[in-house]
Amino acid sequence: MNILLIRLRLIGDVVFTTPIPRALKRAFPGSRITYLVEPAAAPVVNGNPHLDEVIVAPRPAGLARIVADLRLARQLRKARYDLVIDLHGGPRSAWLARATGAPQRIGYVIQGRTWMYTRAVSRPRVLRRRHSVVNQWDLLEAIDGWPLSGPEPAVDPVEMAADPSAAARIEQRLRAAGIAPDAELIVAHVSAGNPFRRWPEPAFASLVSGLARASPRRRIVLSSGPSDREAAARIAAEARKALGEAADRVVDFGEFDLAELRALVERSRLFVGGDTGPLHIAATTATPIVGIYGPTEAVRSAPWRDPRVPTEAVEVAGLPCRPCDQRICEPGDFRCLTTLRPEDVLSAAERAMNRRA
After folding, report:
1. What is the pTM (predicted TM-score) of this model?
2. Would you give the DSSP letter of residue 112?
3. Could you tell me how far CA 244 lies from the centroid of its own chain?
4. In this structure, which of 202, 258, 307, 341 has its CB flanked by the most CB atoms within 10 Å?
5. Topology match between the domains 2-140 and 165-356
6. Beta strands 289-293 and 2-6, pairing class
7. Would you state the CATH architecture of domain 165-356?
8. Could you tell me where the beta strands, DSSP code E, fall in the chain?
9. How far, in Å, CA of 270 to CA of 312, rounded?
10. Is the pLDDT assigned to residue 25 strictly greater than 70?
11. What are the extents of the domains in the chain?
């Protein structure tokens, strides 16, 4: 069987699709699986052992995108796929799925796009207490003759192939930063592309200084997105000020690409950060994780991996406005994050590291 999977973008969402190629190979031995993705999230699936091909869809602006998509559609149609699964559900992915001409095209029931599929799966618009991986599994169960039961994180965890060259670059950068080989690294991702998921800077600074203060062997490496470099610098400065003579335990050595981030987390004792793409990259390793959840819930987007790996979720319970659609904060004060205490995150971090030890 010749299969095409489509999930164009958003790093965390692409990570959540990675159990699917493994399941398809188990269900249909000998099948050929291709994954269609845009450039930003392509490193997540490059090198995946269950994929036979990764097609990176360019995303130019304006008329150039129309030309590129027509060219891509011709390429996909020539491949003669037997089955196409649109894991994305956007206008572009639905159109590309339709353009393949595959006899079996599966996607979600979405107004204005359902007709592009041969089989559409209902997806309630309400925010259900159900993990994203399980939601996507519904599409697999719509395949004719699907033989497998529901997903289990220990059997079908998220994954991202290790990149030895990225690991070598990280080791070089750690040496250049004066970090000893036996240092206990902790990665703190201090930003989020979505403003509704940003924990306040003073809270992060308090967490970082608390983690660093607990042991002279610790080095806290700050990670952030390109648009949040200034915020990361402010957090590092505030944490160093609080640490005084131990200020060198906070390290901020710039940006990493996704492969380097994964290599750094794999090398570390702990990852702590909000419900963003880097947290889900971290979930592809065996490193303990502390997730900070504001408008989202851990039950829907916690790391999907072997439950024996220490994982902690810190969230404010009992808020009637939570979870939300992240378009407007009804109370207006982002209380799901602003009332989340640094000491609670710090306690969760120590628990996770002690379990690993």
Report:
1. 0.95
2. T
3. 34
4. 258
5. yes
6. unpaired
7. 3-Layer(aba) Sandwich (3.40)
8. 2-6, 32-37, 53-56, 83-86, 104-108, 119-121, 184-189, 218-223, 250-251, 270-274, 289-293, 311-315
9. 11
10. yes
11. 2-140, 165-356
pLDDT at 109: 96
| Separation between Cα atoms, residue 293 and residue 319, nearest integer Å | 12
For residue 268, the one-letter residue type is S
Model pLDDT for residues 261-285, shown as the tens digit of each residue:
999 999 999 999 999 999 999 999 9
At 318, list the tokens: 């009992």
How many other CB atoms are found less than 10 A from the CB of residue 161? 16
In CATH terms, the superfamily for domain 2-140 is Glycogen Phosphorylase B; (3.40.50.2000)
Burial of 291: CB neighbours in 10 Å, binned 0-12, 13-18, 19+: buried
Cis peptide before 216 (omega within 30 of 0): no
Nearest to 54 by CA among 89, 87, 8: 8
Contacts 24+ apart (CB under 8 A), 238-246: 238/201, 238/202, 238/205, 238/209, 239/205, 239/206, 239/208, 239/209, 239/212, 242/205, 242/206, 242/209, 243/209, 243/212, 243/213, 246/212, 246/213, 246/216
Q: What is the mean pLDDT of the chain?
A: 95
